TrEMBL record:
GO terms for biological process: glycine biosynthetic process; L-threonine catabolic process. It comes from Rhizoclosmatium globosum. GO terms for molecular function: L-allo-threonine aldolase activity. PANTHER family: L-THREONINE ALDOLASE, L-THREONINE ALDOLASE-RELATED. Its cofactor is pyridoxal 5'-phosphate. The keyword Transmembrane helix does not apply. This is Aromatic amino acid beta-eliminating lyase/threonine aldolase domain-containing protein.
Length: 371
């Protein structure tokens, strides 16, 4: 099968391809589709079962309160709000930071907010999203590029820029800290607010040694996901000022996102911060090991492996992701697959070096059989 595709239109990296991904739980060796696929560990299940709960709409769930207090301490922001998903915390932040249209929001053209949140900004906030690509030779946005796209006048034909949204990590790559500082200074100069989709900021902090508080101090609001590499089954926390979080709590209820006895899930988040966060660098080491093994097989990486994502190209070996998907599913491994040559495999704490060795052995045998 040729690695080329005649499919028209935009193709999502979440496309499952045409290959089967049905792998019985008892036969599953590794799931590389995303770091959202982790299942609670035995220790996490125990803390979930024993969690004290209340009614969070009345703000009296003690475990949710404890999680929000922990995130205030971790981020250095004075207030926080536990929600169901990272999409919800991103959208609550944007809605709470903006007042009334007309207004525009600048985002990275590759970002989750722009590509994978169902046009929620347009729906909830009536804001114009302006996607920006990094300048040539850069993997991340820089202050000079963003500044050129700001709409600062009050001409009636325009939607003034009120917010910039960044993402760290993005595609597994770490946003350079000095570039974030420069963007913050530029935003302050123009009176523009700054939000961070920090779904995987934990990974950036673990890898660089820059504290979560130091990162978060540069933003008006930060969305911190607990259900990706952190390994909790559900949940994301929005941090910001007391005024913004009070407004976000109101919008959360409006969105239908008020918790009742959500402390069962908050307990998993606390456990993840205390026990999984300190070990995230192990996932990064496993990802680099996986990348090295794939490169040796003839699959070159297409992006830097700085945290837990491995992006590589199947076309040098005239393969599609769908072909890999079928072969690996038959051997207990799930991937997204699809017709695109570039593949994204995501490592998490339930992907071990041993499972990587299994994957590489399966691929090596498959490639040998094609010769």
């Amino acid at each position: 099968m040729s690695a080329s595709s005649n499919s028209a239109g935009v193709q999502s990296m979440y496309s499952a391809g045409s290959g089967s991904t049905v792998v019985p739980a008892s036969a599953l060796v590794a799931d590389l589709r995303s770091d959202t696929v982790t299942t609670p560990t035995d220790e996490m299940r125990k803390v979930i079962a024993s969690a004290l709960v209340g009614d969070d709409v009345f703000e009296d769930d003690p475990t949710i309160n404890a999680l929000e207090d922990l995130l205030k301490e971790t981020s250095g922001h004075p207030a926080s709000l536990f929600c169901a998903t990272g999409t919800m915390t991103n959208q609550l932040a944007i809605r709470s930071l903006l007042l009334a249209p007309p207004h525009s929001v600048l985002v990275d053209s590759r970002s989750h907010i722009y590509n994978y949140e169902s046009s929620a900004v347009a729906h909830h906030t009536q804001a114009l999203l302006i996607p920006i690509a990094p300048k040539e030779g850069k993997r991340h946005l820089t202050a000079d590029v963003i500044e050129r796209h700001l709409i600062l006048d009050d001409d009636v034909h325009h939607a003034p820029t009120k917010l910039i949204c960044l993402e760290n990590t993005l595609g597994g790559e770490i946003f350079p800290y000095e570039d974030i500082v420069a963007i913050r200074e530029m935003a302050n100069k123009h009176g523009v607010k700054l939000h961070l989709d920090g779904a995987r900021l934990w990974n950036a902090s673990a890898e660089t040694g820059i504290s979560m508080e130091q990162y978060c101090s540069l933003f008006d609001t930060v969305s911190l996901c607990l259900s990706k590499g952190m390994g909790a089954p559900i949940g994301s926390v929005l941090v910001g000022s007391k005024e913004v979080i009070k407004k976000a709590r109101h919008y959360r209820k409006l969105f239908g996102g008020g918790w009742r006895q959500g402390g069962l899930l908050a307990a998993a988040g606390i456990h993840a911060i205390n026990h999984h966060f300190p070990n995230l660098k192990n996932d990064h080491e496993t990802a680099r090991y996986l990348a090295a093994q794939l490169t040796e097989l003839g699959f070159p990486t297409t992006r830097k492996v700085e945290t837990n994502m491995v992006w590589f190209d199947t076309t040098p070996l005239k393969l599609t992701g769908t072909e890999l998907q079928v072969v690996l599913a038959a051997n207990g491994v799930r991937i997204l697959g699809g017709a695109m040559g570039e593949q994204r495999w995501v490592v998490h704490h339930q992907v071990t070096k041993q499972s990587v060795d299994h994957i590489i052995n399966v691929l090596r045998e498959f490639l040998s059989s094609r010769q």
